[in-house]
Amino acid sequence: MSLSATTAPPSPAAPPSPDVSSRRSRGRLLNRLDVKYSPYLYIAPFFLIFGAFGLYPMVRTAWMSLHDWDMIGEHSFIGFDNYTRLFADEYFWNALVNTFGIFALSTIPQLLLALFLANLLNRTFLRAKTFFRMAIFMPNVVSVAAVAIVFGMLFQREFGLFNWLLSLVGVDPVDWDGQRWSSWFAISSMVNWRWTGYNTLILLAGMQAIPKDLYEAAAIDGASPWRQFWQITLPMLKPTFIFVVILSTIGGMQLFTEPLLFANGNILGGSQREFQTLAMYMYEMGIVNLNSAGYGAAVAWAIFMIIVLVSLFNFLLVRRSAK
């Protein structure tokens, strides 16, 4: 006797309970919110700090520059009179010339030397690379006050090392902090010594990111190391070099500590303002002279605009020359 069994249709699944559906909906909502908004929470601390210590001071300084403002708190709106005053201020133009002079004497040799040292440290035949890379960065770790003290002793008129070396070849002692060109040279040498190693390591990192296959193919084709440097290293290093140029421009236009310490704390930068920079002049007007804070704020914004223009010029110049 055979039995024919028929398969019973499956019973429909029971609908989820309201609590389960609610939990699933909340889970999906939280997942969407996490994907959409959590990145903003991660970067929010930077913008909060930047807003408090970067954006707000800039806006506040711009507002102060439109007023006849003193440090006591009294102020009156004068529009762009402070900026008009800049064009007739001989001390401002003197500080501008000094800043550009020191900037040219420090930045150009510094970048050329940093490029040479980075290319040398990138060579495969060089031994003890880690030691040399650490050693070349050491000047940047040293306190700028200590650097200024040492270089101040080296550039002393009566007992300085450099004047002693000049005397060996029959050159009269140089009053390094009493003349414009000599003080520019002394301050720029201090800046070069301190920041060349820093820029060298940045350029070295850019060189190490260049694929080695390019050098191997060029060597097979018979290209000399010099030709490889010009045809491969420099074009591939262009973004990093532009970054270093812009950083050096910002630092050079804001030069303050080195010339101030070289002048032994004299904010005027010498008896005749021989090496007073824009940053020193801004400090003199905005902090030292309590009744001209508004004018000091205008000087600060002038420095900002000069940095933007010079950085843009350097960016275009380096990008065109690297083509």
What does this structure look like?
- By secondary structure, this protein is mainly alpha-helical.
- Helices cover 72% and strands 2% of the residues.
- The protein is built from 13 helices and 2 strands; from the N terminus they run H-E-E-H-H-H-H-H-H-H-H-H-H-H-H.
- It has helices at residues 18-65, 81-87, 90-121, 129-141, 144-154, 161-168, 180-208, 212-220, 225-236, 238-253, 257-262, 278-288, 293-321, and strands at 67-69, 75-77.
- Strands 1-2 form a two-stranded antiparallel ribbon.
- Helix 2 (81-87) packs across helix 13 (293-321) and helix 3 packs antiparallel against helix 10 (238-253).
- The N and C termini lie far apart (95 Å).
Strand content: under 5%
Give the C-alpha Rg: 31 Å
The share of residues in helices is over 70%
- Characterize the largest beta sheet: strand count, sense, and whether it forms a barrel: 2 strands, antiparallel
Please sum up the structure shown.
By secondary structure, the chain is mostly helical. 72% of the residues lie in helices and 2% in strands.
Key features of this structure:
323 residues; mainly alpha; two-stranded antiparallel ribbon; 13 helices; 2 strands; disordered N terminus
